[in-house]
Design goal:
Blueprint (H helix, E strand, L loop, with lengths): L2 H9 L4 H5 L7 H15 L9 H18 L2 H10 L15 H8 L5 H11 L3 H13 L4 H7 L8 H13 L7 H4 L3 H24 L7 H29 L18
Amino acid sequence: MGLLEVCAQEFGTADLYRVLGVRREASAGEVRRGYHKVSLQVHPDRVGEGDKEDATRRFQILGKVYAVLSDEAQRAVYDEQGTVDEDCTALSQDRDWEAYWRLLFKKISLEDIQAFEKTYKGSEEELADIKQAYLDFKGDMDQIMESVLCVQYTEEPRIRNIIQQAIDAGEVPSYNAFVKESKQKMNARKRRAQEEAKEAEMSRKELGLDEGVDNLKALIQSRQQDRQKEMDNFLAQMEAKYCKPSKKGGKKPTVKKEKK
């Protein structure tokens, strides 16, 4: 299977630029930054042992994508013909892609990933990425939540509030997939959020973080409860805003006409 087919299978697109989250007209520096940002998300050092194989495979694919787009000749061929020379040296199967990554960037660590997430969340860059994902997927929250960097399902209320504010401000159109999403789909993501929280708690226990650190444990439990309440409140608000009232109810609320 060639690189383009593998990208379509692993990242949902055969467009090498979209895999790295950059424009086709992106400069060499923008391509490099795009590669750095996406590779942080799938770096094998940020996952558990059970997920390392999948993360390593995706990390290696990203290395090949960057190898093509960072080479002027290879990029020109791809831009003109939409093909990749699978036999070129840059795509050698024997290449150590993690060593290649370290040549470009400093050695990754958990602290690096956490620092990146801390600066990225709430930044103008994240805001732009969320709006772009909303436009790309026409309001489909399943795909938006999968595509935005460093986002956990427990953060859905925050992401939706950002999108709603952008809609209200006229910065993005109002898609039915977003404003009229079924409660069933929303609850499915809520279940995933609960499973994610349980997995995180299990990981902390495996690391012994709940032994002799009562204050930390209490803080974790408190945050989990707050997130659960936030999700419940959010679902109730969305139901009140977008779902039709029963026939026994009072007046039907006025809903703004959607932009198309």
